[in-house]
Recover the amino acids of this structure.
């Protein structure tokens, strides 16, 4: 099976933005784009099954329209489309297996402007075997590129488990874009319990910061050697892992975070950092599964 960049579409402006983002990514990587629409019909999972009423013709028209517009914008790009009869989250997770990336649009919740991802997107990001990129429909007003126009990929790292899969994607994306990579690690002071109650921890923050900076440099060293032409900024911040990433998201071309797989069939879930970044980042976010 050839590997594609996949875009899941559902007729919303957010999914249309995701399809065009995925088209640019496919062209950047020199691979084909597959645009997928997933809709349940009696749980058959059969893409050739009869769809009731005008659902199937309408879905085909929508796919044909977005395919035409992407081909017009990027005439050298190979574009394919597919209809999948399944639950949206289940179908997207299944069809993405074995491909390079799955790109989806974020969907804001009415009344909660800061929450950018709907239930299907969260479910897919928590379960997919491949990296899932969530794309905003439009760049926030007033947002500027980091470094006065210099593109930047931001990656958040857990120094207890600096996952290779996360670093692989972050460095690859930075190289493909000719972008700078900003590797950030955020940490918090853990309060201590005493006879008088909770109290600020008695630790040397300067020593802790130096230790974490050394650990970050060690984690990045193999990738710096593999990608010698990629500029790297290393940053350790006191104040929490999610906030460390979100601070730089407004000017980023892409934000990359990890999602640790849960063994022993304990179910799929996003960690707290990935969940917060997906909801609040002001840039496209890639969630990468790792052991």
């Amino acid at each position: 099976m050839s590997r594609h960049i996949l875009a899941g579409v559902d007729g919303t402006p957010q999914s249309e933005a995701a399809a065009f983002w995925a088209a640019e990514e496919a062209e950047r990587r020199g691979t084909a784009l597959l645009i997928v629409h997933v809709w349940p019909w009696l749980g058959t999972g059969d893409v050739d099954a009869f769809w009731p009423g005008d659902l199937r013709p309408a879905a085909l028209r929508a796919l044909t329209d977005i395919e035409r517009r992407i081909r017009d914008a990027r005439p050298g790009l190979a574009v394919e489309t597919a209809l999948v009869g399944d639950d949206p989250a289940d179908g997207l997770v299944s069809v993405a297996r074995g491909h390079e990336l799955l790109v989806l649009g974020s969907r804001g919740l009415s009344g909660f402007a800061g929450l950018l991802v709907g239930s299907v997107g969260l479910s897919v990001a928590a379960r997919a075997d491949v990296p899932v990129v969530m794309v905003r429909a439009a760049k926030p007003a007033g947002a500027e590129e980091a470094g006065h126009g210099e593109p930047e990929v931001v990656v958040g790292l857990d120094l207890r488990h600096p996952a290779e899969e996360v670093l692989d994607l972050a460095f690859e994306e930075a190289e493909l874009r000719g972008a700078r990579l900003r590797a950030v690690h955020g940490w918090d002071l853990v309060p201590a319990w005493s006879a008088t109650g909770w109290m600020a921890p008695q630790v040397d923050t300067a020593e802790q910061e130096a230790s974490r900076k050394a650990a970050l440099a060690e984690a990045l060293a193999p990738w710096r050697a593999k990608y010698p032409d990629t500029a790297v900024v290393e940053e350790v911040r006191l104040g929490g892992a999610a906030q460390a990433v979100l601070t730089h998201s407004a000017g980023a071309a892409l934000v990359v975070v990890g999602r640790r797989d849960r063994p022993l069939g304990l179910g799929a879930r996003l960690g707290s950092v990935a969940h917060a970044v997906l909801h609040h980042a002001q840039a496209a976010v890639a969630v990468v599964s790792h052991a």
